[in-house]
Amino acid sequence: MRAVSAIASPLRRINPVTRQTTRRCFSSSYKLQATWGFIGLGRMGFPMARNLRAKLPIDDTLIIQDVNKAATSKFLQENPEGVRIADNAREVAEKSETIITVLPESHHVAGVYKQILEPPSLLNDGTAKERLFIDCSTIDPVISQSVADATHSSGQGKFVDAPMSGGVVGAQAGTLTFMIGALPEIVDRATEILSMMGRRVLHLGDQGSGLHGKLANNYLLALNNIATAEAMNMGIQWGLDPKALANMINISTGKCWPSEVNNPVPGVIEGSPACRGYEGGFGVALASKDLKLAIKAAKECGIKLGLGEHAKALYDEVEATETCKGRDFSVVYRYLGGKE
Ligand code: NAD
Questions:
Q1: Nearest protein Cα to ligand 1, atom 7
Q2: Domain with CATH 3.40.50.720 in the chain
Q3: 66 lines ligand 1 (CB under 6 A)
Q4: Beta carbon of 67 within 6 Å of any ligand 1 atom
Q5: pTM listed for this prediction
């Protein structure tokens, strides 16, 4: 794995305070790019696009698109300088050298790229080889690969899978971590771009590797979350003090992100979702979605899993429970009957 430094990047020379006096040419080089595309302005995409816009040179244009017109209107209202709304995904791609997509599920990504790449005529005059598509969505690696293949075979640009972690809070603060799968020659350029929206960019290998890394991590996270809720519930039912138990675990071998940062017991970690009725945070449905993707991708490669299916079934039951639905995934503790 290669952690790529953003500091050494040539694109950093284009910094937000630079005021260009002449319009830069669309096609000459990515270092001179002037038009950017962003598709999918949801919970993650909206703040990411805002951070990107804030860090781009003043004269650059950000072209945005979302099927939800309220999202693009709100974005334009809040960021009136250098932002334009496109009617569809194809228009975004035709006008941009770099296109970032942040969409919910595999079929959304496949649909948007189909719209972009078909018909397969050149999207503009001779600039296709410069074009870079960065997909930050968490989707099925097989679908991502087929979209990458379609992009490359159409000659319309290069494709990078760059799923992220850090949640909505990280997207707002610009502190996301991106896990990217890209050919070595694209890594620096992708890193420079993603560094405007995040703190770390980890290159895990060729196309598809970003998603495999993300799914392996989220598989572990989903299991750790359930195990932490069960262990905390067990200890508390045995009469242990919640904070004392968490402190002990967090200097012992059970320590993990759900025990240390996102502890499921209200009052143990100040500011955690558990302390605000499990509102916000990483939703149960998202945990279930990522587990499903990881299990499918593992099965397709003949990889044996012991716990995944049980965990997925449990998350689905949690989401179907009225008092837990739509909450942070640490609400598993409530589902187990944990003392709040
Ligand atoms: P979201 O549902 O809030 O936003 C998705 C946006 O895409 C919406 O605005 C929707 O209108 C738009 N959209 C859907 N179909 C479209 C289409 N065909 N054309 C244009 N726009 C379209 O989702 P999100 O929470 O922002 O998540 C986006 C991706 O990031 C998902 O793959 C998710 O798994 C991943 N992710 C989310 C989080 C999180 O905490 N929310 C964290 C890490 C990764």
A1: 40
A2: 35-206
A3: yes
A4: yes
A5: 0.90
